[in-house]
Every structure is written in structure tokens, then in C-alpha cells.
Write a structure and sequence with these properties.
The complex is a heterodimer.
Chain A: E1 8-13, E2 21-29, E3 32-37, E4 44-48, E5 53-57, E6 63-67, E7 74-77, H1 80-89, H2 95-144, H3 147-160, H4 172-184, E8 196-200, E9 207-209, E10 214-218, H5 219-224, H6 228-243, H7 246-265, H8 271-284, H9 289-305, H10 311-324, H11 331-336, H12 340-353, H13 366-372
Parallel strand pairs in A: 8-10
Antiparallel strand pairs in A: 1-2, 1-7, 2-3, 3-4, 5-6, 6-7, 9-10
Chain B: E1 2-6, E2 13-18, E3 23-27, E4 31-34, E5 38-44, H1 48-58, E6 63-69, E7 73-77, E8 85-97, E9 102-105, E10 109-115, H2 118-122, E11 128-141, E12 146-158, E13 162-165, E14 169-175, H3 179-184, E15 189-202, H4 206-215
Antiparallel strand pairs in B: 1-2, 2-7, 3-6, 3-9, 4-7, 5-6, 8-11, 8-13, 9-11, 10-11, 12-15, 13-15, 14-15
Classes of the chains: A alpha+beta, B mainly beta.
């Protein structure tokens, strides 16, 4: 047997060393594993290779331990080449032992990775479940609130908003929209909801509803409308948002999400402060697509009940689609609303399910209102 | 240089008594008081990036302080939380410390940050660990009392209680029992240490303190 060409950094455990352990320089010579401790004075320890019991492990998982049969002396080394050298010097005796140890380690590692993956999936499922149950709970809780809460929040939001210049309530355009709202009001899902419509100067073809029945219509929408029925279509849609309580539901959900996050993170202090801020942003940002579709269908029902042809609502969306191309301001509106095509289709499909009645044209002077703008 | 650990175990601190020419390296911010003739030199903890890594990954300071004295003097070193401290001497061997445990060492000891792995992280011991090697004495602290144990084979430590261990020890995460036991015994995950060598444990854990505090916040 030969002497190893190199020496390795490692260590020794033996009771004769102070503290029982020391770093050592390890070499293999004449069939013996030799370790010289690095401390002063250096001590030499040897284990004949034939008596060496191997083990594999350590923090890195690749430390090779060589023990005497009684376990009193252990020489260990982490060097990658040590195992190879050990095997070479012993004439291949250790190869199968090392293989078996490595195999055991690999099996354990794959078990660990399996459980790691299972735990990660379970944790993700738990988080998702928690998120949706909080959203669901928020929705139920919100539905239980009286409508007066919607009105308080809507009015507060409306008063604190800078919507632009409001038209006088005696203005022909204001009178026009008010008359339409009066016609639709008796057919609203929540009969005693106090609707209030305000016409505001603005270049966007837009209208929005706040919780509790505050509705804002921009002058551009009135200008672009081809008939009073089209305006009625938009107003029915916006009134439906209020009666379906989409605004307050959104606030509830947003707070719910934040509550969920805070529950996960563990800090509840900022919850109230955030609640106020979220109320404002969630009113101003648009409703979800589901909410839009719901409002479309409820709007069609209201129009039908008020004997106004719901076709006008579909017409208006069709017109918007054609207009939107050169109206960059309205991009936000498009992106959050369902595709006009599908909307028109939905409206028409829903209309077909209603019993066919004789629709009455609105006796309102749209031209006069438009001229006054 | 004589170093004594005083006021053990609750509020342990190090009294360092310098002889002319003595030097000691300490965690930044550990010095509580010192003689006016003790000189302090601050340097980066390893190279710049090494120091940054140790700060952000291993919860150690970017800077470490080297104290020296040309004449006799003394100094007191402390840690941020209540608990014991221990001294151990490296003789060419290596010791891994959990983040934040390091307090001081003699100049012959090298400090390096090592990747501890996902298992260590799940066990509540951090993704990284401080590796101390070389020759010389070192002092580290813990939250609560410190006790050590020579391991041969396998031993179980609750997560968050392991402070230091030797590289000849492997760390594995396990459940305290079956799924039911693990969830409802309050033990949850445990750390299985295996191999031959010494481990140091602390009698309290920061997670335990945090959980206790949380329970009293409502």
C-alpha cells in the first residue's frame, strides 16, 4: 500500500484532547489513517484502515467519519477528494460502504423534498381557502347592513370628491336626466332608495354611481346620445349598481382582503386607518366585470318594467365601441368593462327572455337639452 | 487577556481585562463601557460584500470592532437580550453559530457566513449561519440559559432552541409526532440533530416570546 499524495483538512474527536476535539491535518500512510492536530502541542492519532468504521453525514451531508470499533476515536474530513483517496488507498474496500451510505442519504433527501412539496401545497391551499372565506364572510356581512349605510358612505364620498362643475338643477339637461330617473325609480330593486342624479361638465362619455343612489352623468354622454332612451339605458345600468349594492360590496371586499393580509402578517393596528382610504379608492375605481354584467341585466329588467326599449342600451354600447377608437380618455372605462360585443349580446339575449310588450317612446326633448349644453 | 463572564445566567456580560498588546474582536454595539486607554478600531466584517451578506443574511453587523490596549485596561461587552454567555476555544476546529449569537473572539478566529440550507430555515434557525474557525477563544450568547450536549447518534431539539453546533452534526427537520400530535401538542416542528459533536442550546426561544406576546396583545 502506498502513501497518499495529499493531506486533507479535518478534525479529530478523542478524550485526550482538551475539549475533546481539535482540527487536524489528515493523511493516509501505510494502511493507516493519520491525523495530526493543528493546536500546540500537536498530537498524532492513527486508525488502521482495516479497523475503520465509516459513516457519512455532518451539516453538509458529505463529511466522512472514520471510527475505531469501540468509538473512542473519530477522524473526520469534509474534503471532496478524501472519500476517493480513502477508497483508493484501501484498495476498493470502502467503495460499497460509501455507496450504501450515499444511497441512504439520497433516500432521506427525497423523502424530505416530498414532504416539503406537500407542505408547500397544503399551505398554499390553506391561504387560498382563508382568502376566499374572508371575502365570502365580508359579502354576507355587507348584505346584512341597512341601505342607509350605503347612503351615508355615498354622500360622504360625493361631497369629498372633486367631480367638476355641476350643472344647475334647473338646466334642461339636469331636468331631462331627472325625469328619466323618476320614470325608472318605481321599478328599482330597492324601492325606497333615494336616487339623486347630478350632471357634471366633462369630456368623457361616462357616468358613475356611488353607493346609496348618488349618480353622476357627464355632459359628453348627453351630447353624444342619439335618443333619450339611450340615456335611460345608461341610467338604468348605473341605478342597478346602486340597488345591487356593488359599491359597498367592493368596499367590504377590499377591507376583507386587507383584513386577511393583516391576519396573516399579524398586525391589526393599521386596519382602521386603511379602511377609510380603501373606501375612497374602491368607490372611485371601477366595478368588476361580473358586477358590470349584473348591472346590465338588472338595468334591462328595469327598462323593460318601465316600458322603455332595452335595445337602446345595447345601441349605446355599440356606439361607444365605435367612438372609443379616438377617445383615449375612455380607455380606462373600456378596460374594466366587459367587451362591448359580449355586452350587447348579453343584453339582447336577456331581452329575448322577457315577455314581449309594447314599448313606449320617451316623450322628452333631448335636442333642447343638448342645445343648452 | 483575562475574560470573565459575569452576572450569569440572566444578564451575562463579559469583563475583558487587557494586558499590554492584547486584542479582541467584538460584535459592533456590544461594548457597554471601557477604560479610556482601550483603543477601538472599526473595520468591515470581512470584505465589503461579505460584511453586507453577514449583516442582512446572518443578522450580524456590517462592522466589527477590534479593541486593543497598549497598557492595562478593561472593557465590558454585552448582548441585546437577557441571557447567558459561554466561552469555547477553537483548536483548528469549526463551530457554526446561529445568527445574532456571536459576541466576541480572539484575533486567531476567522468569521465567515455560510449557507445553512432550507432545512435549517424550516427548523427556525435561519437560512445562513456564522462559521467560526481557526484558533482562539470565542464567546457567544443566547436568550435564556445555555446548555450543551455531546451528541453521538441522534438528539431532538425544539425549533428555535439550537444556538450553535459543530460541522460534524447534521440538521434535519421533523414533526414532533404524527400530524395530529405535531399540530396540537404545541411542539410543531422539531429539529433532529444527528452525528457526533457538541451542540449548544438556549432555554428560551424568540419565537416562544413572540407567541407569548401575541397572545397577550388582544
Amino acid at each position: 500500500m502506498s502513501t497518499s499524495r495529499e493531506s486533507f483538512e479535518g478534525g479529530v474527536f478523542h478524550e485526550s484532547i482538551p475539549n475533546g476535539r481539535a482540527g487536524a491535518t489528515i493523511s493516509i500512510a501505510r494502511g493507516e489513517l493519520v491525523a495530526d492536530t493543528t493546536g500546540e502541542p500537536s498530537q498524532r492519532f492513527t486508525i488502521p484502515l482495516s479497523q475503520c468504521k465509516l459513516d457519512l453525514g455532518g451539516a453538509s451531508g458529505r463529511m466522512v467519519f472514520c471510527r475505531t470499533s469501540d468509538g473512542s476515536l473519530t477522524i473526520f474530513c469534509e474534503d471532496r477528494n478524501f472519500a476517493k483517496e480513502l477508497d483508493f488507498q484501501s484498495g476498493g474496500v470502502f467503495a460499497s460502504q460509501l455507496q450504501a451510505l450515499k444511497k441512504g442519504q439520497r433516500a432521506e433527501a427525497s423523502r424530505f423534498h416530498f414532504w416539503l412539496a406537500v407542505s408547500a401545497v397544503a399551505l398554499a391551499a390553506l391561504l387560498i381557502l382563508g382568502y376566499y372565506s374572508i371575502l365570502g364572510a365580508a359579502k354576507v356581512a355587507i348584505r346584512a347592513l341597512p341601505v342607509s349605510v350605503d347612503q351615508t358612505i355615498g354622500n360622504t364620498a360625493f361631497n369629498s370628491m372633486d367631480v367638476g362643475r355641476k350643472l344647475d338643477s334647473n338646466h334642461p339637461a339636469s331636468k331631462l336626466v331627472e325625469e328619466i330617473v323618476d320614470k325608472l325609480k318605481p321599478h328599482a330593486k330597492i324601492p325606497d332608495m333615494k336616487f339623486k342624479v347630478t350632471v357634471v361638465e366633462g369630456k368623457d362619455i361616462n357616468a358613475f354611481a356611488l353607493p346609496g343612489g348618488q349618480i353622476v352623468v357627464y355632459t359628453a354622454l348627453i351630447k353624444e346620445a342619439k335618443s333619450a332612451e339611450q340615456i335611460a339605458g345608461v341610467l338604468a345600468h348605473e341605478m342597478s349598481h346602486a340597488t345591487l349594492r356593488h359599491g359597498i360590496e367592493r368596499i367590504g371586499q377590499s377591507i376583507g382582503v386587507i383584513a386577511a393580509i393583516q391576519l396573516l402578517v399579524g398586525d391589526v393596528g393599521g386596519l382602521l386607518a386603511l379602511g377609510g382610504q380603501v373606501a375612497q379608492t374602491s368607490i372611485l375605481t371601477s366595478y368588476s366585470r361580473t358586477a358590470e354584467t349584473e348591472a346590465d341585466l338588472e338595468g334591462v329588467r328595469m327598462l323593460h318594467a318601465a316600458k322603455i326599449d332595452p335595445q337602446a342600451m345595447a345601441e349605446f354600447f355599440k356606439m361607444l365601441e365605435e367612438k372609443m377608437g379616438d377617445l383615449p380618455d375612455a380607455v380606462a372605462w373600456i378596460s374594466t368593462h366587459p367587451q362591448h360585443e359580449t355586452r350587447v349580446e348579453n343584453i339582447n339575449n336577456h331581452k329575448k327572455t322577457l315577455e314581449s310588450i309594447e314599448y313606449e317612446p320617451l316623450k322628452l326633448d333631448l335636442k333642447a337639452a343638448q342645445d343648452a349644453l | 487577556m483575562q475574560v470573565d463572564i459575569r452576572n450569569r445566567p440572566s444578564f451575562a456580560n463579559l469583563l475583558v481585562q487587557f494586558q499590554p498588546g492584547d486584542r479582541i474582536i467584538a460584535e459592533a454595539g456590544a461594548m457597554a463601557t471601557m477604560s479610556s486607554n482601550v483603543e477601538m478600531k472599526t473595520r468591515l466584517n470581512g470584505g465589503f460584500f461579505g460584511a453586507l451578506a453577514r449583516r442582512f443574511l446572518g443578522s450580524e453587523s456590517i462592522f466589527i470592532n477590534e479593541f486593543s490596549a497598549s497598557s492595562a485596561g478593561e472593557m465590558v461587552l454585552t448582548q441585546a437580550f437577557p441571557g447567558d454567555m459561554v466561552c469555547t476555544e477553537l483548536r483548528g476546529n469549526t463551530l457554526f453559530l446561529q445568527p445574532g449569537a456571536f459576541i466576541a473572539c480572539e484575533p486567531g478566529v476567522r468569521l465567515a457566513l455560510g449557507w445553512a440550507g432550507i432545512r435549517s430555515w424550516i427548523a427556525g434557525e435561519g437560512l445562513f449561519r456564522l462559521k467560526l474557525s481557526g484558533n482562539g477563544r470565542l464567546w457567544f450568547g443566547a436568550y435564556g440559559a445555555i446548555f450543551d450536549r455531546e451528541i453521538t447518534g441522534e438528539h431532538i431539539v425544539d425549533s428555535g432552541h439550537l444556538v450553535a453546533y459543530e460541522p460534524s452534526i447534521s440538521i434535519n427537520v421533523g414533526m414532533a409526532g404524527g400530524i395530529f400530535t405535531s399540530f396540537f401538542s404545541g411542539e410543531g416542528l422539531i429539529t433532529r440533530v444527528r452525528g457526533q459533536g457538541k451542540i449548544y442550546m438556549q432555554s428560551r426561544s424568540f419565537d416562544g416570546l413572540a407567541a407569548w406576546t401575541n397572545a397577550h396583545l388582544w
